[in-house]
Specification:
Chain lengths: 581, 159
């Protein structure tokens, strides 16, 4: 262990290095300058200069989501700190492990409304898993150790370390000791499997006639997708994933019903509504899934596996609560099932799977739209996703922004692997797509990383095109350009008599091709269906270039199915003039 | 029904604001809240009371337990427990209800003003307040509830 004397700033960077960090995202400013100088003087940790602090936090978040390793962002005090807030809230809602380090004014100035002073601990309090205000330079190694421990264990989440400038002063050095372990009496997240109710769970599974496996982001976060898939295969039970859970079970597997919830497939929502057993894993029954919780899956018993005790029975009562790691609890469940030589109700299960197939045949998504060519002379947004899927062999990382394009990507790109689909599900943050793609591309320089976005969302963090040039990030931006805040417009069509209040731009959109080119990248415009596939091919084939594919899509398209608010999950609109009730 | 939750938390800057922030953030209705350091100087004990139903109290308890600074939480009202509150009341001498209080209640007295103290359950204090309403007390101060379990259970940690 390195015991040489270090300043607080050096201790910080060295602690990050010892935590395995080799990459961080940030933006400098007065209160962080000692830290920036320490970064300059070492070679362990690379620093990526973003163009806005929101971008730094989203990039760290994207890196964390793609790799499972904690992402790190560094910002200055005041405006730097407040610019990081949206990124923190995004990571908090999706439980991703990031550590955000903010410079703070000198400790003797705290509370005096000094220049660029913001109470970062106070402002971020409700949107962090935990935060630390450094009180002594010597505490920095210990706090970094704790911060990474907290961010990456239990239900993961963002941690803030706020460091007054005087504690990073290069003049003040102390003996550097990095703790090899930590023991926090107040923090003992559940580890391993919860086996207390495994037998009861297995009993329910053995007698279920209409079971559904419903899994969420927790399975991806906990690297439990193999176990989830093994369980589903063992039982031949149908599987659905939440928006955050896509990829946990192979999207192209026939046992997969697609996403559930607000814009979930007909068969997934119908299966949930009619189930007699729901096995929820790493999912939290949020309102985008359950619709009206009082009418949610009334005939189903619920087994709920989650690492967060507070998520279990929060919204929907769990008949069998299993509070532990998804990976290990699933392993324990599989073992229990195998060792009792389980017989499920095979004939009931195949009847149930047949029923699901019928639902799919009746109202499932059409995955062959691309072959149907232009629709009324227009390109459908779904066709663009299908084309992207085809050209990338379903193997790309796909990040997305928020809106219709996000839902189309989730519905039509079949994610076969966990961590392949990266989006802001909980907070729904427009602007997340491009910076998060930077984090993914830096983690996986050889992989195809595409950002599916809309002309609205991309403009929220478009400045990061400059960062992409500086670091040579060949992201493929697929802009589903419907010349509108499409999702807002859809709601206005459905609920506000088609009054498009502030959801269109009156010909004020930039020329995205020219814009991208002025940033030094490649821009390609697609306005006719006949150009779609060849342009997509070209876009993907330009391996070393960032390409902005700006596709004019049908501006009148809506996302369906769509749950009807205030009802059970079987109440869906299936198209502009078709509904299930 | 009144429910009383007690917790131990790290006696650290920011810990209290996290606990209090949680209540507003999650929309919990808290009636009383009392905080003081314990005899172990690294810990503070916080006692809160709420009218929420069982499900709400269970959520509050779980969410509190999730806070990193919170070491231990208990829902005292789950079993037999003792709940007490302190109340101070100020009267003018002319309107002092002599039939209600005796010497032992009086904590200060001058030519014009008498201050009394009363200890009891919150319900007893509520009742007393309506009893003395006609005497127009000048000021009533309540501490909020403290609680302790009736049996051998304790909310302490081993060091
Ligand atoms: C930061 C932020 N502001 C507002 C919203 C509300 N909102 C949700 S979707 C949407 C429209 C997005 O437009 P665009 O990016 O063009 O996507 P489209 O729906 O057209 O595909 C808006 C404004 C949001 N999710 N995030
Ligand atoms: Mg749009």
């Amino acid at each position: 262990m390195d015991k040489s004397n270090k300043s607080g700033a050096e201790a910080l960077i060295h602690s990050l290095h010892l935590e395995g960090v080799d990459l961080m995202f940030g933006y400098p400013g007065g209160a962080a300058l000692h830290i920036y100088d320490a970064i300059f003087n070492q070679n362990y940790v690379d620093h990526i200069l973003v163009r806005h602090e929101q971008g730094a936090v989203h990039a760290a978040d994207g890196y964390a989501r793609a790799t499972g390793k904690p992402g790190v962002a560094l910002v200055t005090s005041g405006p730097g700190a407040t610019n990081a807030i949206t990124g923190l809230a995004t990571a908090y809602m999706d439980s991703t492990p990031i550590v955000v380090i903010s410079g703070q004014v000198k400790s003797n100035l705290i509370g005096t409304d000094s220049f660029q002073e913001t109470d970062m601990i106070g402002v971020s309090r409700p949107i962090v898993k935990h935060s630390f205000l450094v009180q002594r330079a010597e505490d920095i190694p210990d706090i970094v150790k704790k911060a990474f421990h907290i961010a990456t264990t239990g239900r993961k989440g963002p941690v803030v370390i706020d460091i007054p400038k005087d504690f990073t002063d290069p003049e003040y050095k102390f003996e550097f000791n990095y703790p090899s372990e930590i023991n926090m009496r107040s923090y003992n997240p559940p580890e391993g499997a919860d086996t207390s109710s495994i037998k009861e769970a297995a009993d329910l599974i053995a007698t279920a006639k209409r079971p559904v496996i419903y899994s969420g982001g927790g399975v991806n976060q906990n690297n439990a997708s193999e176990e989830l898939t093994a369980l589903a295969k063992l039982l031949n039970f149908p599987v659905t994933n939440t928006l955050m859970g896509l990829g946990a079970f192979p999207g192209s597997d026939p046992q997969f019903m697609g996403m559930l919830g607000m814009h979930g497939t007909y068969q997934a929502n119908m299966a949930m509504h009619n189930a007699d057993l729901i096995i929820a894993v790493g999912a939290r029954f949020d309102d985008r899934i359950t619709n009206d919780p009082k009418q949610f899956a009334l005939s189903a018993k619920k087994i709920h596996i989650d690492v967060d005790p507070a998520s279990v029975s929060k919204i929907i009562h769990a008949d069998i609560p299993i509070v532990g790691s998804a990976k290990e609890s699933l392993t324990a469940l599989i073992e229990e099932l195998k060792c009792r030589d389980l017989k499920t109700n095979e004939s009931d299960i195949s009847e149930w799977n047949e029923q699901i197939k019928n639902w799919r045949d009746a109202h499932g998504l059409n995955h062959s739209l691309l072959e149907m060519g232009a629709q009324n002379g227009k390109i459908l947004p779904q066709q663009v996703i299908q084309s992207l899927y085809k050209e990338t062999n379903g193997e790309a990382f796909v990040t997305s922004d928020v809106g219709q394009h996000q839902m189309f990507a989730a519905q039509y790109y079949h994610f076969d692997k966990p961590r392949q689909w990266i989006n802001s599900g909980g907070l729904g943050t427009m602007g997340f797509g491009l910076p998060s793609a930077m984090g993914v591309q830096l983690a996986y320089p050889e992989s195809i990383v595409s950002c599916v976005t809309g002309e609205g969302s991309i403009q929220m963090c478009i400045q990061e095109l400059s960062t992409c040039l500086q670091y040579g990030l060949p992201i493929k931006i697929i802009n589903l350009n419907n010349a509108a805040l499409g999702m807002v417009k859809q709601w206005q069509d459905m609920q506000y008599g088609g009054r498009h209040s502030s959801s269109t731009y009156e010909n004020s959109l930039p020329d995205f091709v020219a814009l991208t080119e002025s940033y030094g990248h490649v821009g390609i415009k697609v306005s006719k269906f006949d150009e779609l596939e060849s342009s997509m091919k070209e876009c993907i084939s330009l391996k070393d270039k960032l390409v902005f594919l700006d596709v004019d899509v049908d501006p009148n398209e809506h996302v369906y199915p769509m749950l009807e608010a205030g009802n059970a999950m079987d109440h869906m609109r299936l198209s502009k003039d078709e509904k299930t009730w | 029904m009144k429910r009383v939750i007690a917790l131990l938390m790290e006696n650290q800057p920011g810990a209290l604001s996290r606990v209090v922030g949680l209540f507003s953030q999650r929309g919990y209705n808290i009636e009383t809240l009392v905080v003081a350091p314990t005899n172990d100087a690294t810990l503070s004990r916080l006692t809160m009371s709420t009218e929420g139903d069982e499900k709400v109290v269970e959520q509050i308890t779980k969410q509190l337990d999730k806070l990193i600074d919170v070491v231990m939480v208990t829902n005292l009202s789950e079993s037999e427990f003792v709940e007490r509150e302190l109340m101070l009341i100020k009267f003018t001498k002319d309107s002092f209800p002599e039939n209600v209080f005796d010497e032992t209640n009086i904590v200060s007295e001058d030519n014009e003003i008498i201050n009394v103290q009363v200890v009891g359950t919150s319900l007893e204090l509520d009742k007393l307040i309506s009893e003395i309403d006609a005497n127009n007390p000048l000021e009533i101060v309540r501490s909020g509830s403290l609680g302790i379990s009736s049996d051998e259970k304790t909310l302490t940690i081993e060091n």
